[in-house]
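Late entry, evening session. Most of the bench is empty. Finally got around to the prediction I had been postponing all week. Sequence below, unchanged from the version circulated by S.P.
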Amino acid sequence: MALGAVAMATMLVLAGCAGVLSGNPDADEIAQQLQDRQDEIDDIQGVMTIESDFDGEATETTMEFWERPNTGEHRSEVIESTGFESEGDVTVHDGTTTWIYDSEANEVTRLDLDLDLDEMEIDEGEIIESMLDEYDVEYNGTETIGDHDTHVLELTPTDEADEEFAYDELTMWVDDEYWYPVKQDATMSVGEETVTTTITYEELAFNEGIDDEKFTFDVPDGAEVVEAELPETEQFDSVSEADDATEFDVAEPDVPDEYEFDSATVSEHESETSVSLLYENDEYLFVSISETEPMTTDGETVEVGDTEATIHDMPGTTSLQFECDGLYHDVSGDLDEDELIEIAEPLSCE
């Protein structure tokens, strides 16, 4: 589930709801009304079902969840799933540490995320104003979903919306009392494929109190605990600066003139270094050079100079991968094979 996208869409919907119910407030008024409602929610619990269909392949996952929005504490337990999750999978975040339990493998991944929520301030007014530029909101009256009175809103992208990441269609049913999304229907294009997702909340309860024990994870008997670490990252404004920050050479790819350089990111993880270069026009182009070997995937074998490479077609992008002197290269974008090969040639083995 793309939580960031859902959160942003939720904020937009709340803003749209405020505009419908209170005339036509400006962005500051919308942000204030949103903040007032959010401040009223100390905890939420319920059952969430996510139904997805990707090019005819349907999956459904149902999980129970408990959350304290103001502290970041969260727990979810998978009840049943036909997707990647399994019955009995558990995720717990206690405010500083995330525990992810894979019930089939009987393995726990522990990840320290010591985030200072007070320092992570978000200007909700600016976010909402930006989102309102990207979507038109149409109010479609009220509807009862379960035992909730809701406001129905239809969202359609404007010309300002990012074509790669925007929903094609989005319908939200927003709880009248807390402005919380009780149901969401979304359609998004991924390359030539279409993804539809329906998220439904049932048995929702607000501010009933949640025991602290819910946000404590007990390792199951016999489970292996794996300590995961986040990579250390640093961003640079040029390829040459990224080159200076690494022990291996970072060559300039032969990027088409219509693409502009955006950023270079150097990551260190478990003594291995990766460099990611981002270029953009209306589409994104990614170039990565890494000491970490990627997962093996099937694809067509091609030549980049004298270097053997593999090309993979995926929804919305094509990826060209090859290894050279112990470094693993990946050039990815919505481009054809010849264009990717030309971009990658300066990176190939000499």
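Two things to note before I forget:
The CA atoms of residues 28 and 136 lie 18 Å apart.
The mean pLDDT is 82.
Will write this up properly tomorrow.
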